[in-house]
Specification:
Length: 406
Amino acid sequence: MSESGRPPSRKSDAPGQNGDPGTSAREPGGGILMGRFFGVPIYVAPSWFLVAALITWVFGDQLDTVLPELGRVRYLVSLFFAVAFYGSVLVHELAHTVAALRFKLPVRRIQLQFFGGVSEIEKESDTPGREFVLAFVGPLLSLVLAGVFFGGMQLVESGTVPGVLLAGLMISNLIVAIFNFLPGLPLDGGRMLRAVVWKISGKAMTGTVAAAWVGRGLALAVLVGLPMLSYARSGDDGGSGFDSLTDALLAAILAAIIWTGAGNSLRMARLRERLPDLQARTLTRRAVPVASDTPLSEALRRAHEAGARALVVVDGRGSPTALVRESAIVTVPEHRRPWVAVSGLAQDLTPGMRVSAELAGEALLDTLRATPSTEYLVVEPTGEIFGVLSTTDVEKAFLAAMSRSS
């Protein structure tokens, strides 16, 4: 699958879902860095090792009935199957990543995890056609892989280790493709449905709402339908109650993932609707210009008289050179402020710390992310100083927008 939601980012299905590259082998919440693809880091989450062990155990037991002569070697074969299967999931995610990069959408990372994989795409598609293609390529590649493995089965003898492995990989990729084609968020099929409704209605939000509610309906269908099918099958062939219980647990987990993913997709869409309310002009603090040798107490007095909440250091020509950091001001005791010049509390301006007063929404967030800082100088399109933007104010406004979208 693919994912869009950080604001904004992008997520995937299970198995096969749709990320800032780290410089170390681990990233908080990312896992172990395994490599990079076109500069996009690929992580393996610790939960992957759990599911690899589970697949090794389950597939190993199945091999014991098909190829009993393998003995304990069957677990090495099943471990190879687990790695090969997740290699297929990685190909599914790489398809999303290639499409995203082709559309100039930044990808934060790819992560392989317990229920598949996720490609974290930083921005939403700007057209329904691109959204459809971006979602479609993942399950399409899974179908292609299923066909490749089916072709390989024709070249080897059935009932052998290669034959069993190829059959298992063919079936598993076919299941991944079919599952991802289901028309409900957060699955790829849900993103395709979103794109279709978006195209028809002309509104991205309408497509998201429709696909999210279909996803919730799909979650309920999985929760009820899978155990019923398992029960009917066990009644016909005398299967164990343990198998039915396992299928019911799996259904509950899958239903929870789909329901939660659909809800998150809807919440993030509502948040993106409110992002335009994050405007640099309305969030900017009024500032007063001061010379670098101005005592802090005098600078604060001028700011108080002007009703300002920020200080900008300017040179002899009135051009801004630095911003006085709010965090530094509070560390200076009041009795010391007449003896401390503002230059000692200021941060020199860099090009990335100048932002336009016209910025809003995602463009504003992208600009701030590109040059992390605590304060930014906000300027008019004409170059005049408008004020100072504090990241604290932006964070508060963003959290308020999130709470309204919940």
